[in-house]
Amino acid sequence: MVGERYELEVGPVAHGGGHCVARHEGRVLFVRHALPGERVVAEVTEGTTTSRFLRADAVEVLEAAKDRIEPPCPFAGPGRCGGCDWQHVSPGGQRKLKAAVLTEQLAKLAGLTPEQAGWDGSVEPVGGKLPAGQVPAWRTRVQYTVDQETGRVGLRKHRSHEVQLIDRCLIAAEGVTELGIESRDWTGLESVEAIAATGSSDRQLIMRPLPGEQLPLVELDKPVSLVRVDEQELFHKVHGRSFVRERAAGRTWRVSNGGFWQIHPEAPDTLVAAVLDGLDPQWGENALDLYCGVGLFAGALADRVGEDGAVLGIESGKQAVADARHNLAALEQVRIECDKVETLLPRTGITATDLIVLDPPRAGAGRATVAHLASLGARRIAYVACDPAALARDLAFFAEGGYRPVSLRAFDLFPMTHHFECVAILEPTGREPDQRRS
Question: Which residues contact 424 (CB under 8 A, 6 or more apart)?
């Protein structure tokens, strides 16, 4: 059915992928480049006559929503770059769509209204207000794919291996743009990732050569460190440092070999502030920082609980653990352990703690881990989530364990995309946990 066109009334926004839901003759279509309430002509991009649903792009807008704008990026639109989902939506309209997704996921998966979740219903903007039509340049890490025919870089099209060649990414941070990557020849590489640290002048390129190919000669417009990734996913320093120095929460953080770090320059401080405000750590308390990465929350907690307190961080990535131990070496009250949370936590012998921070991967923590955390009797838990569905599922599991959200905040840390970040603060309900476990 690919290529078929239908005139549709567009329904509500869907979770994930920047789609809205529409129906045609009883069949569900997930339509990109549309907005709720619009009337569009949609062209099917995926699906057959036996598919449960179809994917489609709005290729013509017959009746536009009031939040629709002309996409500022020339590479946005049907069949083009898949990096952004909402270039055709005003900034306020984007946040309303994200709020609608969170509201729906909380209701469907956790059985919570916004009020019951302690959420005011808004997705908070982060960063200063920009002139109309200007796109926030927030993305401090950009992974470019190299077009094998031309040696030029681009970004992948939505749900495709095809490359959209670009001469500039509007959401890329200035520190990435100033490297001039789009104007160079990258023949011999599969991809090149650019990292521009926040709070330092560090710039890094992570290059993946094609099998059997040599690295190209790299001459960029600014000083940059170079790292090569081999076919076994091992990192090799080529020039300069193997890490960048990020600045957040009053500290400098070493992040090696493209390890995880929030890519909006204001995200680390924004999330740390939300976590600390919600937990209100006290001197002498004990805390867990789970999925701790390079130690951002562990460091912030350690400052609050002081020398009489203790913070245990758990992280499965070996390089991240090495970085966390380096970053927090001066804090004797912090210990960082390397393993999966679900594997290590039961082996620690910890039966009680005061505070917990968890920032799990996109899939969430899951029922078993949540049940274990609920059994530790923490007075407050901060859950940092990048996926609203995973958050809502885990909130339902926490409810089984006798915890409820007392506050929830959502932050627009990924403008122009469907992604956003949440921080939920949970407290015991004062009742016994449910006995259901699976």
Answer: 117, 118, 382, 383, 385, 391, 395, 405, 407, 408
